[in-house]
Amino acid sequence: MEDLHARYADRAVRSVFIYTHEAHPGENYRHHTSMDDKRANAQAFVDHSNIKREMFLDDLEGSAHRTYGGLPNMTWIVGRGGFIHYKSAWTNSADVEDALNNVLDFQENRIKNQWIPFYSERSAWSARPMDKFQEGLERAGPQAVTDYQGMIERNKAKRAPPSEDVAPRVPGNFYKTEEEDGGK
Amino acid sequence: MSATDYNYDVFTGGQEDFLDFAMHAPKVTMRAPSFALEELATGETIEMKDLWKKGVTVIEFGSFT
């Protein structure tokens, strides 16, 4: 996303990051009990990941984050007047870039082409580099690793194995087979 | 939701949050709600709607963990 920010800056696209609660709190990066906690963790993130985008903090109650859906790593694209063009449960820079190009095309050509925007939905996908994710959990602290493992174990029984027809069921994939859906 | 509930100290996870996002969060073509945000670098408070006043804004939500 940093690369996307750099490449689209000259097309008057503003890219920002809004810091939320800690998705996987641990001993090293704890849950926030004050705005100072949040500022410290956000700064650590900026320093570690070399974030060049503007970094903003939501309030301690997560008012903005919760209103926008409260998921751990969403991306939204908002146009002039606050028009929501794109919302995604997870962040995949290729998918964001594809949507962004459509938005810029629309903005640049809508009057000439008399385009009228309408609502649409589609799926998106990304690889899930579990080694990097595990690294992140370990960086947060042993509790973050344990808590995540606990969630995996609790949900194991509910999680159907992927098949050729059905992609892996991760959070944000709502697919159910006919059998799982009670024959509907 | 209180700050204590929002800032959980134990991650439990769940698919329900994702369904909530799909069904109840603002939808594409709606107007994005605006909230006060603190800019980390300066400590200044801005309104979210200032972000998209002049053009397109890409907003990523997240945390270090």
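qc> Chain A touches chain B through 95 residues (CB under 8 Å).
qc> done
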